[in-house]
Amino acid sequence: MAAAQSNEEAMGFIGVGIMGLGMAENLLKNGRKLVVWNRTAAACAPLLSSYPELCTRVETAAEVVSACSVTWSMLSTLEASDAVFPSVLGAMGPGKSIVDCATFTPERMQEIDAAVTAKGGRFLEAPVSGSKGPAAAGQLIFLCGGDKELFAEVLPELGHMGKASFNFGSTGAGTRMKLVVNMTMGSMMATLGEGAALAEASGLSGGQLMEVLELGVMSSPLIKLKGPNLVKRKYPTQFPLKHAQKVCTIMCDACSCSPCSHLWSRNTSITSMPHFPTFANPSPQRRLVSLCLALAMD
């Protein structure tokens, strides 16, 4: 087993966007030196200005991997991964490790694992449960799979960025857990939104609805965090809709290959599904919300 890194040795961080920025900052707050890279260089500026002695920006993802034995990656989409990973792989070799915190497909994580290990490196998938706020507060939940020794070595850093870390075994298992968690969260959020809309249409107070929900068995952090925004009609971006749709699409693909495949296929009309709430002019947001709800209820 390789020795855990000391704070004197820099770690790499690729992707400091909505999620990665808060994650990287929590590592820096705890004295960890970082070598960072982002496709949009300006995104690195807050880290460089706040931690000039600890943070260094380089010009390519390959330079990050070349400079560090352990590199974290938090890219937003499969397309971003496709664009960046060849550069990462080109710098891989013995003594190099990648911890990928993005949400892709289980198959994509397994492909990355195979490519990294073929070059003599190590790989750990570590998708997170949590959005922008928890990332900034160091309250993420890491859902890991892959190299067990690497998982043990980076536990201190996982602790700086999150409140809990799980290892579900082989690569792909962590991502499957993330999809299940997001499906559950999406259906809960859909139900909360429909409940708020029904209360408003019924002439009831949205604020009082949230108060009643918080006092009952349905009380949850989701209601406490999202309820007030629904009432005020304020929607600051914590988890962009396009990324929610990405997860939903991956989830549907996973369903088509699972025992619950009868629930969904790409040729199924959403509005033909039982329990699907119908609307006169559904927005893309409402269609996505309703898809999550229909999948959860069918």
Could you say which overall geometry the principal axes of the C-alpha atoms support?
globular
Query: Major β-sheet, in short?
Result: 9 strands, mixed
Give the overall average pLDDT. 85
Helix content: 40-55%
Rg from alpha-carbon coordinates:
21 Å
Number of β-strand runs: 9
H/E element string? EHEHEHEHEHEEHEHHEHHHHH
Amino-to-carboxy terminus distance: 47 Å
User: Which range does the strand content fall in?
Assistant: 5-15%
> What quaternary form is this?
single chain
**In terms of per-residue confidence, which ranges show pLDDT below 50 for 5 or more consecutive residues?**
259-287, 289-298
Class computed from helices, strands and strand pairing: alpha/beta
Counted by DSSP, the helix tally is 13
Care to describe what's here?
The protein has 298 residues and is an alpha/beta fold. It has 13 helices and 9 strands. 50% of the residues lie in helices and 13% in strands. The chain has helices spanning 20-29, 45-50, 61-67, 78-90, 106-118, 132-137, 148-153, 155-161, 173-201, 206-215, 221-232, 241-256, 284-297, and strands spanning 11-14, 34-37, 55-57, 70-73, 97-100, 122-125, 128-129, 140-146, 162-167. Strands 1, 2, 3, 4, 5, 6, 7, 8 and 9 form a 9-stranded mixed sheet that branches.
